[in-house]
Every structure is written in structure tokens, then in C-alpha cells.
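Re: export button greyed out
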Amino acid sequence: MAEPIYELRGVTKVYDGKTVLDLDELRVEPGEVLALVGPSGAGKSTLLRLLNFLEPPSSGRIRFQGRDFAPGDEVPLALRRRVTTVFQRSILLNRGVWDNVRFGLTLRGKRDSVEEVESALEQVGLGDLRQRRARTLSGGEQQRVALARALVLHPDVLLLDEPTANLDPYNVGLIEGVVRRLHSEEGTTIVVVTHNVFQAKRLAHRVGLILEGRLVEMADTESFFEAPRDPRTRSFVRGEMVY
Amino acid sequence: MGAIGQALSLIVGGDAALGEIVALSLQVSGIALFFATVVGIPLGALMGLTRFAGRRLVIALLYTGMGFPPVVVGLFVYLMLSRSGPLGGLHSSLVPPLFTPAAMILAQTIISFPLVAGFTMAAVMGLDPQLREQIRALGADRWQTTWTLLHEARVGVIVSVIDGFGSIISEVGAVMLVGGNIEHRTRVLTTAIVLETRKGNFDLAVALGVILLGLSFLANLAMLRLQGKAFD
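Workaround output, generated via the alternate export path:
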């Protein structure tokens, strides 16, 4: 088996004395689509922030692409740039759509990027809106711009934090389609956080349940939904309250 | 209308004394604004984007500085630069002597940089807190993040510079004290207005006032042009 792209050991995150994340172990395999489900406030988004190196863990180790990082270790920019996140509530820059999508490439010093930006916009179906100011778009369109500005970077890992919450079915379908294609055509590793178990079922190879900062169960999608080992997983996938 | 007519005839006529005064006003306030911007925008960004021990104290000082009466700043600079003062006593070539444009620039820099820093800080802090994280997630390093946030807050940052300029081009107390309103050397528009009013030359004083307003308006217009579509 290939080396995991992420391997987390004993990772915790503490805010103001409160432990919001406490994981014994978590592995993400290269090229998989991993869904993390759980109620809001369970620590899923915190985990994604750690995976994107937006903040360090309070303790533990994060191994990424063969390199180990402990709290306080500087993660090299080039490595951090192999990962990006699409957030639940994407905030676009106060510029045109085109400049928003090009932004990450500009940060990387790539100036000649017309075709890449064009292709990313086409993929999310916004080719016609490239001239518009980003903030005049509808919520679904803004989220697609956010996806395009991530796609254009061709990341090794794409983290999705509730990317389709509050969107209409058309936009949900479109975004899920783009994610699927990104995975099948570029082999991008995808970690999607969602409270929507159906989305997890549609997209993921493996699903994990996070409750109160802990990983309750992680299994391939079929067994997670059909034969959950943990009673809490069972009640979560049935849509019952877990606490 | 006599005043405006006189103002126009002064401008059109290319009055040499007036040209000198206008040039010195723009020079002193322009250079002071340059220093205030170079100090104020990074300071404002730092205050708005980072948390460190003593930050609240610095903010309190900054807010105090924003409301500081120019004449008190003038007095402070006067005492510092005078021969018996702590800076003037050094007799260093780096310390500008009193009654020179350099001393006026120093005073006006002190007046305007808290305004630039304070409004820049407010502008940056008014951005959505999640924006910063999202910019970083797209691969921005620290400087790129700061630059992008300043760019996103550009309307407020421009206003901070405009306000900094407005506060010093129209300021009279400090330039009067540390400059001395010396003809051909340190006379600027505001001090000339005071002088002409005292002499009873009201038409000339009003004409100078109209020119001051016009200059201020043009400078602000130019700054807005710099930003292009920022205000859309």
C-alpha cells in the first residue's frame, strides 16, 4: 500500500482551554475521496484548517507527503501550496471574476495563465461571467468561482468544507460533478467535510464520523452506511440524534 | 464675488509670490503626507492584523494622536527643536532647525500619521475575518496576505490618506509655530491667510482660501483617480 498523503498521530487542537479536536490517528490515502461527517461543532472544520496548515495543532504530528510536522514547525510555502480549501462561505475578492480565479496563480508568480483560468471557468460553467464583478454574483455562482479559483491551482489535495451547504440542487449537482471529474481526471485527493450524509454517500470512497472532536468510526462508504460498527454511527446515518 | 475674481486673476496672472506660497504648501504637506503614509499604512495594518502585548495601549495612543490639536504638536516640535531642546541641543545635521520647511514637515508628519494609521487599521479590521484565512488557503505568504487585505480595504486606506492630507494642508497652528510664517521661506497658504486677514486684506485672504480649497479638491480628485474603480 502506498504511503498515505496525510498521516496524523495524536493530533489535538485546544482553543481557550477547550479541546475541540482529539484524534489518535487519521490517514488520508493519495487519490481518495474521504468524507468526514458529523454534527456542526464536532471539529470537522478545525481538522481541515490543520490539514491546510492554516494553523498548527496544539499537540501531535501531521505527516504530509512524507514530511513530519510538529506544533511550531514551519511548513514550507511550496508544500502548503499543494493544498487548498473551498470554504462553506466563500469570500471572493472585490475584483472581477477573472481576477478572482487567477488570484492563486498570481500568488505563485504565474503571469501567463489565460488558458488555465479560462478552463477553470468553463469547468464550473461561468465562462460567460468572467467580466462581472465577483460580488454581484448569486450565492451559487460565487461558490463556483471559489471552486474555480481552487481548481486552477491543480492542488494535490482539495479540502472542501461544507461546499454546498445552503445551495440549490442545481448548484449542488454542478459542484459535485466538478469535484468528481477533478478526482477522476487529475487524481486529486479530496477531503470533504459535510453534515449531509447523502453527499458523503454520493462522493466518497471512505467516510469517517467525527463527534465532539473524536473520530468515532472510519470505513469504506458501503460498510459505513450498510454495516456501521459503532452504534453512534448507526444512529447518525439513520438521521437520528446522536446526543 | 470680488474674492473669487481676485483669486482667479491671481492664478491666471501667475502671481510670483502666490506661486511660491502654493508651491511651498504643496511641498511641505506632500512630503509630510509621504512620510505619514510610509509609516501609517504599515502601522495601521500591523495594528489591525496582529495581536500582541501592548496593542491596546498603542491603539489608545493612536486614537489620541488622531484628535491631537495641531497647535499642541507644533508646540511640542518647537520645544524639541529649539536650541535648548533635547533634539535642537544635539546640533545634528539630521535634526531640522526651527523656522525651516523641514521643521514644518516634521510637525505635519506627526499630525497626519496617526490619522493614516488609525483609519487604515479600522479599514483592515472591517474586512470579513474569514477573508484572511481564505487568502492564505490559496497559498499566500505573510506579505502577500497583508498586501491583499490592504488592497481589499483600499477604499478605507485611500480615505485614510485623503484625511491625512486634508488635516495638514489646512492646518495652521503647527506651521505657524515651527515655521514662523517667514516671507519667501516658510510662508504657506494657511499662514498667509492669517496674515492677510490681520492686515485687513480680506479679499486677498479669501482669494487664498479659495485657492486652498481648490488645491485640496484637486488633490483628492487625483487620489481617487489613482484608485480607478475602487469606489464602484
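The first helix of chain B runs from residue 2 to 12. The button fix ships in the next patch.
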